[in-house]
Amino acid sequence: MLFTAGTARMARAHARISGGRTHLYEFGYGSTALDGRLGAAHTVELPFVFDIADAPWLHGQSRLLGPDPAPAGLAARVHGAWAAFARTGSPGWAPFDLRRPTAEFLGSPRPEG
Question: Residue 111: what pLDDT?
């Protein structure tokens, strides 16, 4: 929640001036580190962005991703979206729309509510 309000404000501001080139996502995979207390904290998505989420040095009770294995396919999906955005300007989902502001959800599982 710490970054959500500022990110939403930035997305709205950018969408007003970008001509449909604003894309927003929510990374929702919760790390199992520290008995799950770390959760989907800031920077947990980085091993998925760089497709290294299976690296052994990221796993363990006090390591960034915790003791559990990364969800199958999530690193490929996140990395693919970032690479596509760098290549084409589109991550593979619709741009942020001021009339219906939504974000693509990248994570497992999707939270209720």
Answer: 46
Give the pLDDT confidence score for residue 5 in this predicted structure.
86
Please state, in angstroms and rounded to a whole number, the distance separating the CA atoms of residues 15 and 90: 14
State the residue for tokens 């729309």.
97
| Global pTM value | 0.87
Contacts of 91 (CB under 8 A, 6+ apart): 23, 25, 81, 82, 84, 85, 104
End-to-end CA gap in the chain: 15
Q: Would you say 80 and 86 are in contact if contact means Cβ atoms under 8 Å apart?
A: no
Helix boundaries (H) for the chain:
4-17, 46-49, 74-88
> Each residue of 69-85: pLDDT tens digit?
999 999 999 999 999 99
How open is the CA angle 37-4-76, to the nearest 5 degrees?
70
d(CA 108, CA 104): 13
